[in-house]
Structures are given as C-alpha cells and as structure tokens.
Amino acid sequence: MAPSNQAQKSVRFEDDVDAEKPGDLLASIKKYYASSKFSDLTVHTMDQELKVHWLVVCGQSEYFSRLYEGEGLESGMNEICLKEDEPRAIEAMFHFMYGYEYDSSGSDQGRESPMLFAVKVYQVADKYQVPQLKDRAREKFKSIVETCWQTDDFPVAIEEAYKRSIKEDRGLRDILVKTAKGNIKELDASEDFRLALEETTGFAADLVHAMARDEVRKPATMLRCNTCYVEYHWKTTPLGRWGVRFV
C-alpha cells in the first residue's frame, strides 16, 4: 500500500513554509501542499500518495484542466493514478506547481543525477502539459550539460533525451547536439559517447547536420600546389583538416 500524505510531509522543501505572512497567497498555497489541508485530489504514484488541489493543478496544466472538466466534474473524481511515470519526476511537477524549487534530492528516496533527472522532469512536464515546468527543466538541463558534459552522465542523457522526446521537440536535443559539436574531440575519445552515437536513433544525424551547417558558414582558405599548381579549398573541422579540390 502506498504511503499516505505523511510521505508528502517528509519531503525536503527548499523554501520555509513557516515564514508565511498574513495575506501571502503563495506562502499559503505552499503550506496547504505540505500539510494537505483542503486537498481535493489524491495522486497515486508508484510508491506514494500526493494530496493536491484541483484549482492549483488545473491552472497550470492543460491535461489536468481537461481531465477535471471531463470526468472530474461529472463524477466528482478525487483520485487519479500516475503509476506509469517516474515517481520522483511526478513529485517534482507538483512541487513546482506549488511554488517550490525542485531538485533531484528533494525526497527521502535518495539523490539522482541532476542531468538525468532534468530529462525526466522535462518529459513529465511535456506529457502533462505544464509549459513553465518544461521551460524550467530545460534551463536546468542546459546549465548542467554545459558544465558537466565530460561526465559519465552525458552519454546516458543523450540516450534518455532522445528516447523520451519526439523528433520535433528540440528542447533538449539541440542542447545535446550543440554541446557535443563544441567538444567533439574530447568526446570522441569516450567509448560511452561513441556507443551513444551509434545506438541513439537520430542523434548522429542531428550532429552531422549541425557540423555540416557550421562548415558551410566557415570560409575556406585557397591554396595552390607548388608542384602541379592545382588549387584547393582547405578547411579545418573539429576532427581535423580536409582539402577539397577547386575546379
């Protein structure tokens, strides 16, 4: 049986809910989430129950708004099951809705890689149509990737981001491609990165296209062979130099 709202109270919040000022609506909303007071919706995840408020979640999620206007309003729905999703990411989504800044260690369940956690939160935000959370997850992901691309998490993040997003959603994919392109020499020495390059559908093609666009924009140096006097365009690529015969 999933833990009750006591698990919700045990979550480590980064903000102080006791610092409420009279008339402070945001602080009151945070307090009601932490205490479950006035909650009218129970969300069942894989390992816990979260007590939330229809008013708060519907105002930020088109998914929950449609759910309430459909089944919820007619049947008096007060419970939903989200057990197919990553529980920590679902937890983070509701933290965000109530004004908390989530992180990957915000639960008693233990800490997770911030880079990979951002991918999961981004996917959940996309699925449940919480655009502000999706933007926030993307910002966090970008900041982490730009400073931690040399870690073992980067190749895994490539696989996860491409697996959890559709081709048209460039939010995380463009960040990964840009970072890989800018550090390709160092990454090429990583066996894990090369494996991600081979096995992640779409990533290699995106990377090649990005590198090709850069080469088109880059001016070429004109050289002439001192022996045969044939002229060449000479360019430098991230992986070395190549010459193209000028006809």
Automatic annotation (TrEMBL):
Segments crossing the lipid bilayer: none
SMART domains in UniProt: BTB (SM00225)
InterPro entries membership: BTB/POZ_dom, SKP1/BTB/POZ_sf
Record-linked Gene3D superfamilies: Potassium Channel Kv1.1, Chain A
Residue ranges of domain BTB in the record: 39-106
Coiled-coil ranges from the UniProt annotation: none
Matches recorded under PANTHER family: BTB DOMAIN-CONTAINING PROTEIN-RELATED, BTB_POZ DOMAIN PROTEIN
Listed name of the protein: BTB domain-containing protein
Species whose genome carries this gene: Aspergillus aculeatus (strain ATCC 16872 / CBS 172.66 / WB 5094)
